[in-house]
Inverse folding.
DNA sequence: CAATGATCCTGTCCGC
DNA sequence: TGCGGACAGGATCATT
């Protein structure tokens, strides 16, 4: 389940792959995966790659001819560069055919992922309203205070709301709250400014650390558990039995999602 | 507007 | 060995 750091890592890889190339065509193997802006002309390819960027968990690719491609991986989506000539592999939902006879396969077991083709000038219509980027300089205690004011929902749930903060998912929110020593069930509006300062700081720190490790939570969440090395060491409460201090970790459900936290460390 | 809940989907794992 | 059910969760839509 790619979150901000994983999406950033994927964008870096995709950008390298697309640099200096053009899309020749797009094959679709699963109805509903590719969404097309009705204002686009019949033929949009070939289209030359210009630039890429990330917004929350969205990948935004810009091409010549006023074409943009928005990719959202949701939980199980992957973009895999592959120059082999073999046809669709298992769970392949779409495939970009690139110049230089290479391919960019969109593989997505659970089919929640989406590829949107739209006019660049229509990007706003196809992107949802998203909150501030957590790595922006302006993301600080004051911003948190503003978005959490008078909110009664638990802080855990609010931090997952993309309209408030763009890019956080379940794993990182659990980890951020643990490091901030904040109980996930506390109503967002009741957190004092002093704690919001810590929350803002830890949010950035966790994300930066994850990005520097190339978003090691990539791959199926099942594997997160088995993963040895960097990411396994990175996780302190998510899917853990005990926290680093040896206290038993509690697991509860909030808004249909698992929350892992340490009742001793997180007050 | 805010909060909550159902829904989509498939592979994996667990208990019987 | 096989099978049913729980579970994983991002975003969207519906309901209160």
């Amino acid at each position: 389940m790619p979150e901000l750091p994983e999406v950033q890592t994927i964008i870096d890889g995709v950008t390298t792959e697309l640099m200096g190339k053009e899309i020749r065509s797009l094959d679709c193997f699963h109805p509903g995966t590719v969404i097309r802006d009705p204002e686009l002309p019949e033929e949009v390819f070939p289209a030359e790659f210009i630039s890429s960027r990330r917004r929350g968990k969205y990948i935004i690719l810009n091409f010549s001819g006023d074409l943009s491609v928005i990719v959202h991986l949701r939980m199980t989506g992957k973009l895999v560069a592959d120059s082999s000539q073999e046809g669709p592999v298992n769970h392949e939902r779409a495939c970009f055919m690139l110049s230089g006879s290479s391919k960019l396969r969109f593989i997505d077991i659970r089919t929640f992922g989406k590829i949107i083709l739209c006019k660049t000038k229509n990007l706003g219509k196809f992107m949802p309203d998203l909150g501030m980027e957590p790595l922006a300089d302006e993301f600080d205690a004051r911003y948190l205070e503003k978005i959490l004011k008078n909110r009664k929902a638990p802080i855990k749930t609010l931090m997952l709301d993309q309209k408030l903060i763009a890019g956080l998912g379940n794993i990182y929110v659990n980890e951020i709250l643990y490091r901030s020593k904040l109980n996930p069930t506390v109503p967002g509006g009741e957190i004092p400014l002093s704690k919001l300062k810590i929350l803002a700081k830890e949010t950035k720190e966790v994300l930066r650390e994850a990005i520097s490790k190339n978003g090691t939570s990539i791959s199926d969440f099942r594997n997160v558990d088995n993963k040895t090395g960097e990411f396994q060491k990175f996780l302190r409460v998510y899917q853990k039995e005990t926290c680093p201090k040896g206290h038993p970790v509690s697991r509860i459900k909030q808004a249909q999602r698992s929350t892992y936290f340490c009742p001793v460390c997180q007050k």
In short: Residues 217-229 of chain A have pLDDT under 50 and may be disordered. Residues 1, 3, 57, 72-76, 110, 112, 128, 160, 162, 169-170, 220-222, 256-258 of chain A lie near DNA strand C (CB under 10 Å from a C1'). The CA atoms of residues 9 and 214 of chain A lie 6 Å apart.
